[in-house]
Every structure is written in structure tokens, then in C-alpha cells.
Amino acid sequence: MELVYIHSAFLTAWSIHTAHHGTHTPADLRNLCQDMTRIWGIREVTSCDLQRVLALVNAGAIQITAPTGDPPRIVISNYDHGKICVEIAEPRRTSGHTTSMRYFPLRTELKYGTYVAALIRAWNARDPDLDGPGFVESLSLEPIVRASAVSLHMSPLLAKGQRRLESIRATMAAPKATPERREEGSTLLERLRAKELRQLTLRPPPSPRQIARRAALDRVEAIAAVITVLSTSGSTGQQRVSFTLPTVLERLKDTLKTSKIEGENCISVMSKEIAPDWVKMVKIGKTQAVVVDRDARLSDSEMRDRVRKALLK
């Protein structure tokens, strides 16, 4: 799930970058990782995390044909002097030979689907002996390539200006049959409105609250097993047993290495969505407690089914 969350944080960080700097300006790798860390809020996002995600995105893009016949790519370019940038590029071909790269906006709804498909293909093709962390470490990283000869002599912002200048020159050189006629939708206001409409059609990334809820649902089965052992280890003959919340969280930390926030979020989700008759969180004075009804314990299959349905919401 970390790979999905990191990819979602990348889409949000990239959208913020393009909103401030435009769709054709490369994003500084270090700034992008810092923005993703703030958006995700779980741990620091490293350059290797981003390289691993971009490699999966590009692997998914190979399955889709671009208008020129070549798939778009997200490249990591080294501009020298410690400047490493992330940019969207698509090969431009002339007479069957690649001559340059042209840059275009990232289609969020397309990249999300291709990324998930590529991740599923990589998981299905993995070595059966690999567990989750081993599978993540086995994934390839998107390489950092040296920028083109022209780009090395200018900063990313200057490269953007050069591309804009070339576009203006090409427009001025084109023949104008009716120069005084203004095409429909060519005004700045209309272009801004069209951009707003496109943004409304994009699939929004999950909010931090949704990400925390999905992470809690993924831990339900493991934490339920610990609570079962804890509730049956003592107080023989009692239907209901209670523990202070810090006691349960400390037991979860020792057994599953989960943080207190992760453990509390999972218990809260269990008491509200998955098994409210079995586990309840109550507040007695200033003390929070976890009350467990032994007779209302769900079977493993029923709990998995409820978790699956909750993930679909």
C-alpha cells in the first residue's frame, strides 16, 4: 500500500507544482520529495521511493500508445551543478528517427490507472518467495539521465523560455489567411475556464484521512488477533473484559511494531465499522478504555469480508 500512497502524494505534489509554475517547467527532485513527505505525513519520501514509483508509471505507459506512436515518459534529468529535475517528456520523431523531446501536461487520470495496472503486473510476476518488503526492494528504479546538450547550458526556467520562444517563432512564420479573425476559445479567460473544467474531471487523490483509514483497515486482521489473545489470557469466565487504551497500544507496539497512532486508528475503525459489537472504545472519566465482548468475536472469514467491503467504500 505504501507504493500507492507515495504515488498519490506524487500526483498531488505535481499538481501543486504545475499550478504555480506551469505544466512545462521541470520540478526540482529534492523539493518534490519534501512536498510528498508533507502530503503523505507518514514518513520521509526519499529519491529512491520516487524513482521506484516513476519506473512503475513508465512501465504502465508502455501499454498505452501516444498520438505520435510512442508512449509518454516521466524522466529524471541531471542538469549538472546539483540540479536534478523531474519532467514529463514524449519522444518526437522525424522520418522514423527520434530527434528531440517535447513536453506536455501530466494526465492524472491516465497515470493513476496505468500505475495501478503496472503494480499489479509486477506483483503477479514476482518471486513467490518474496514478501512485501522484499518485493518493494526488488522493483527497478527510474534512472537519472543526463539532460540534453541544449538543456545543460541553461537552467530549467531558461529552457522553458527557449521552448516558448521557439513556439512563438513557429507561429509567426506560419501563413495567416485571416489575421484579423480571432478563433473561438482563444482568449485568456476562455482558456482559464477550459482548464478549470478539465481540473474538475480529474480524479482527486485520496485525502490524508482516507489514507489513514485504508491503512487502519489493512491492519485490522493482525490487530484483531492480538486483541483476541489479550482478552482470553485472563479473567476466565467473564463475557466482557476491559483494558486501558495505553495498555492495548503498548501490547500492539511490542507484538506488531505499530505506532500508538496507527494502533488507535485501527481500534477506532474496528469499533465503528468492522466489529462494533465485539470491540468498543469508551471513555471513563479521563481514561480511555477498550471493552471486548468475547461472545461477539467475528470469525476470520467474516472479518475479512467486512474489511473488503469497507475498502470499497
Automatic annotation (TrEMBL):
<dbReference type="Pfam" id="PF16679">
    <property type="entry name" value="CDT1_C"/>
</dbReference>
<keyword id="KW-0131">Cell cycle</keyword>
<dbReference type="InterPro" id="IPR032054">
    <property type="entry name" value="Cdt1_C"/>
</dbReference>
<dbReference type="InterPro" id="IPR038090">
    <property type="entry name" value="Cdt1_C_WH_dom_sf"/>
</dbReference>
<dbReference type="Pfam" id="PF26121">
    <property type="entry name" value="HTH_CDT1"/>
</dbReference>
<feature type="domain" description="DNA replication factor Cdt1 C-terminal">
    <location>
        <begin position="188"/>
        <end position="285"/>
    </location>
</feature>
<comment type="similarity">
    <text>Belongs to the Cdt1 family.</text>
</comment>
<protein>
    <submittedName>
        <fullName>Bgt-135-2</fullName>
    </submittedName>
</protein>
